[in-house]
Amino acid sequence: MNSGVQNIVNGQGIMITISGMLIVFAALAITSFFIYLLPIFLRIFARILPAEETSHHIPAFYSAPEDEALAAIGFALHSEAGGSMVGKESF
Amino acid sequence: MEILFEFLKTTGFAMMTWGNALMIIVGIFFVSLAIIKDYEPLLLLPIGFGAIVGNIPSIDSMALNVYQEGSVLSFLYLGVSKGIYPPLIFLGIGAMTDFSAMLSNPKLVLLGAAAQIGIFLTLIGALYLGFSPSESGAIGIIGGADGPTAIFLSSKLAPHLLGSIAIAAYSYMALVPVIQPPIMRLLTTKKERLIRMKEPRHVSQREKIIFPVAVFLISALIAPGSIVLIGMLCLGNLLKESCVTERLANTARNAMIDTVTIILGFSVGASAQAQTFLTSQSLLVFALGALSFSIATAGGVVFAKCMNLFLRDKINPLIGAAGVSAVPDSARVVQMVGQKEDPHNFLLMHAMAPNVAGVLGSAIAAGILWSVFVK
Prior knowledge:
The complex is a heterodimer. By secondary structure, chain A is mostly helical. In chain A, 63% of the residues lie in helices and 0% in strands. Chain A contains 3 helices and no strands. The longest helix of chain A has 36 residues, at 13-48. The two termini of chain A are 53 Å apart. Chain B is 72% helix and 0% strand. The A-B interface holds A 1-5, 7-8, 11-14, 16-17, 19-21, 23-36, 38-39, 42, 87-89 and B 102-103, 106-107, 109-110, 112-114, 116-117, 119-121, 123-124, 127-133, 136-137, 204, 206-207, 210-211, 214-215, 218-219, 222-223, 244-245, 247-248, 281, 357, 360-361, 364-365, 368-369, 372.
């Protein structure tokens, strides 16, 4: 191997270094700016489209006898899972 | 009797060279470092044992070592030489990384960029010493202090240097607590090391979910070469933060990353055969790797000091050293050095921000070098 400054010139080492660092800085500076803006956007978004409020009324089955309540919960879970008891993830 | 003599000629003892013996000692040294000193045991132990296995000489017709076509080890090594294992490790890293520290203080992301100066200055050094441009790019990435990234890029740009680059990268990562503190102390004053930083703000779950998708789009569009590594990192993180694929995230951050780490470490170690590893080029790779790592550390610290010139809320410049990735070891080193000056100063959370930004930065740098040098 022959060492020397000419190798750096031939390999465009300086140009690659400058442009490489600029690109890395640009990518991370944009990321940084995005992270800075994200909570602001989310606040505006939340004002325009507020999250759906959950109903606070007490479901009827709370007052129903225990067996009926369990049956209702079981039916609801079964319907949610699309008729099968497999979890949400699929392969 | 003749059969016995023929058999004796095929034993490891008969074919052992001084180089193989030396590499076996190096392997035992790595295993000892992992067990006795607890230096990166998850990596050094399989790499060290792999080096022992890879340096047992055998006859060519038996197809035993990683470089012989059809051997079992060569199939395990395919994941290294084709760059399959590093993205899988990135998936696991993504599934175990919490980006909250970075999201709560976005300016610290820039420290992860500054530390990548080690990669590019080492590239110049390698060119100066006579390495080809693509070899220089692969050597420079050691400064990213990210083993999977170093393996990924060297498998693409300089496969013949993969063994020495991987071992140099992992060795220096293991030596983070030894290499970084003197540089950090040299470049900072006592007053700077005592700076206390503001508590990080609370980060919402929505931010954490949006972040991996956005950062992937930004990085991939700017440097498409980083698609594989950053894509897998962000997928892993999305699995974690979405809260709907907990089972997949668990597998990625536990079973899968452990399996890949074992095979990766072992096959990289096995590739470090004396015949291919003990060359003057490998020694230069090690020297340049040390230089790269030191420059990267210094780059992060100096940039943090420069940022302080413009900031109202000063940052402790020690956290700049964590920009070299080596997650989470370099962040722990920052905490350790900071606490030596002030035992009540907790810098770990702050240091995690440049630390994970460093992972992104080195993957982007790898993508750039791959795009520039790809033939």
